[in-house]
Design goal:
- With about 150 residues, the protein is an all-alpha fold.
- The protein has one domain.
- It is about 95% helix and about 0% strand.
- Helix 1 runs antiparallel to helix 2.
């Protein structure tokens, strides 16, 4: 039972680590996109001096909207990651409580079994003593019978 619980806990810890790794990699990719958008803005400023002011403003607005969308997506992912972490922590706590309960039950059962074993050992000793006493009575009876048989013969 403890092995199963430990395997479940190890699996959950593995899932946490995988989740953190995926979240980290996803955040890095979003940051790279963010950096690439900033680079695009800088390139626009340096490479397109010949564009009119209206075209520049349109491109800036498009880039800002892309940036805002990426930020919303990043926020959504972070929120989901926090939510998943909370659920995982709840499940880990539940497993720890269950594990503790099972250990307590196992300890209680072991104590009950030990008490039963002690009672049975006491009863066995008592029965052995009675058996020895009965055996001694039988031996005496046998000796008496032999003595009587010798006296009659």
């Amino acid at each position: 039972m403890i092995e199963i619980i430990s395997q479940i806990v190890i699996s959950l810890i593995g899932a946490i680590l995988i989740g953190f790794a995926i979240g980290y990699l996803f955040a890095r990719s979003l940051e790279k996109k963010h950096d690439s958008i900033l680079e695009d803005i800088q390139k626009l400023d340096t490479n397109r001096l010949d564009l009119t002011q209206d075209e520049k403003n349109k491109q800036i607005i498009e880039l800002k909207s892309k940036y805002e969308q990426e930020q919303k997506l990043l926020k959504k992912c972070k929120d989901k990651n926090r939510h998943l972490k909370g659920q995982l922590l709840q499940k880990i706590n539940l497993l720890e409580k269950t594990s503790k309960t099972l250990k307590d039950m196992q300890t209680r059962q072991c104590k009950e079994e030990k008490n039963k074993i002690l009672e049975l050992e006491k009863l066995l000793k008592k029965k052995e003593a009675e058996l020895k006493e009965f055996e001694s009575v039988l031996v005496k009876a046998e000796k008496t019978i032999e003595a009587l048989m010798r006296g009659e013969s």
